[in-house]
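In response to a reviewer's request, we include the raw inputs and outputs for one of the modeled complexes. The two entities were modeled together in a single run.
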Amino acid sequence: MATITFNGKEYQVDENTTILQAAIELGIEIPYFCWHPKLSISGNCRMCLVEVERMPKLVIACMTKVADGMVINTMNERVITAREAVMEFLLINHPLDCPICDEAGECKLQDYAYNYSRGVSRFDETKVHKPKRVPLGPKVMFDAERCILCSRCIRFCEEVVRKPQLHFVQRGDHTTIETFPDEELDNPYSMNVIDICPVGALTSRDFRFRSRVWEMASTESVCIGCARGCNTYLWTRNNQVMRLTPRINESVNSHWMCDYGRLSTYKFVNDDLRIQEPMIKQDDKQIEVAWETALKTAAQRLKEFKPNEIEVIASPFTTNEDNYILAKFTRKITKAKMIEYIDHINEGDEDDILIRADKTPNNTGVRLLGLRENDTGTTLHEIKEAIRQKKVKCLIVMNEDLLEREEFRNILSSLELLIVHSWRHNKTTAIADIVFSAATYAEVEGTITNFEGRVQRLKPAIITKGENRALEGLSMSRWDTFGTAYDKWGRGPRRNARSGWEVFSQIANLMGEKFTYQSAEEVFNEISEKIPAFKGLSYQSIGRLGAMAKTHEKVGV
Amino acid sequence: MKDNGSAKRVIRKDDLTFLQKTYITEIAKGLRLTVSKIFKPKFTHNYPDEPWPFQPSFRGRPVLVEEDGIERCVACGLCSRVCPSLAIEVQASETELEKERYPIRFEINMIRCIFCGFCEEVCPEEAIVMSDEYLVAFYQPKDAIYGKDKLLMSTERLAKRLAFLKENR
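The model returned the following structure tokens for the whole complex.
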């Protein structure tokens, strides 16, 4: 330990840290642009200059190690003057683009211009102009004028992705960033440079100009793109998901997330292909009906079948709660012997950074719940054969497009009853007798378990029909808070969707059982009581960063 | 009944003279005032046939400045943010023009608008200004939402206000 003095106050810090790290840990503000906790130290922005007594010049806090007895000043006149000078230099060629810049509102340069600059420019000459709309790759747009040359993006590609694709070219105030010749910024993590860019030089081509950051509300969530379960923020406006950004969780994804997860896991939530209302088939036509009707029809029709005529396909795409209730429903009500789920593994589509070959977010969770290795030991193949031989006449499917798979084509039509709980229209819902509209991961409360067995929480970010943002306790933007139901932003598109545990416990109740769950949390409490792997876990102990399930425990009930 | 002093009772004098009883002098006094005013210049205004002449400082309904056929607005959303009554909704999009960004949808809910002029004050492009129009009435609430079609107004039409802003900013 080393004893150092910050602005006249003594602190004990670890002697292997730098001044900046010590300051961050102690909550003392030192501004910085180029330093990033997960990248090497470059020390080129000069923003973190501080005064260390007995050193002749100001030193950069990010590169200077603390030493015992060090006396550091971060707010005296000399430091403030130096900071103002650095800001003045940075702003010489920086365009006044804030009104059209997507970074505005979450921009380090903007914040520091308020806090640490002179407030007025003394620069009369013409600014150096550089190209303003350069697509660096398929996902990232570069504005050379806004760049302050901190080199974070260059270091990110080199050190984190280990695929150098960016570099500096030219000299002096003409320095700019380019991709290597004949190459583009197309690595699978390229969009992280947008998050780490302290200014608006690198922006997302997907999100570009779609919303201002202050118009959105953000909700802590988890990416469902693969079994990693990267922690994310879901940004919503007008009841639509606008973008995803990574949330720091050192045990899962550190500061990053992959482009696939960022771009491909939110669009279907706002999609026109979402199922708006529950539907039942009448005279070969699916018609939208009220939930009560759909549930009643399902309960009535299910009674027509013997236990061994019913099969159930659970889903690694939805929450532990949904799958647990579906399994309980299967065993208690239908007494069906067959319950299975389908793996989605893209062999080879993985790396040692984040991306996993298993493309479902909750495969481990469903396995730990015992949906596969149950006493009957049904396999997918057996289910298929049973349908083919018409031993099975009723199939319940949760969030799975069976007809996407070759082996299920032609055999589903022989079923007498096909019940599908799905969030979007697909080939399977098209032939289903009863379709329940499912709430997506952005609309539900629940937990998913990543490949390591880390149980993480999903929180609702957008509302379904009949819900109210304020009453449900969702994060609220200014528009959500002050708008009324008659304002456009108070409405937004809503689906009459429910999550799996709700639907199947309601059917169970209609069939004479008593599933008295009021919330997903109650379901989870039962899971943690009954399933050994989840023992001792609760929504509270999972918290923001998740908690480990005991993956080595015996699976199932 | 007791009067509680709420209204003082006026009791007409009962000892009026004959002339007073006929009211002729009082009528003559009144007519003299009327006749004396008839020939003086009028103060009343023939509204709405004659519109009121406005000072450029008047804050009518907010409009978008249209310059060379396109709006000046870059859809930064500051007006929407500053609006105390949340009347403005802006949706930005990308354009090939040099300004990069433009409002694909710009809506002011005139039921909510309170004519405070904050939007005009905050605008970095002088793209939303208060016009001299103030006749905003509708039969349906949905008609009160003014889109770009109703909001765009040419620089020529807004010349006075723009000059005023230039001078007083």
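As requested, we also summarize the result in words. DSSP finds 18 helices and 23 strands in chain A. Chain A has a mean pLDDT of 92.
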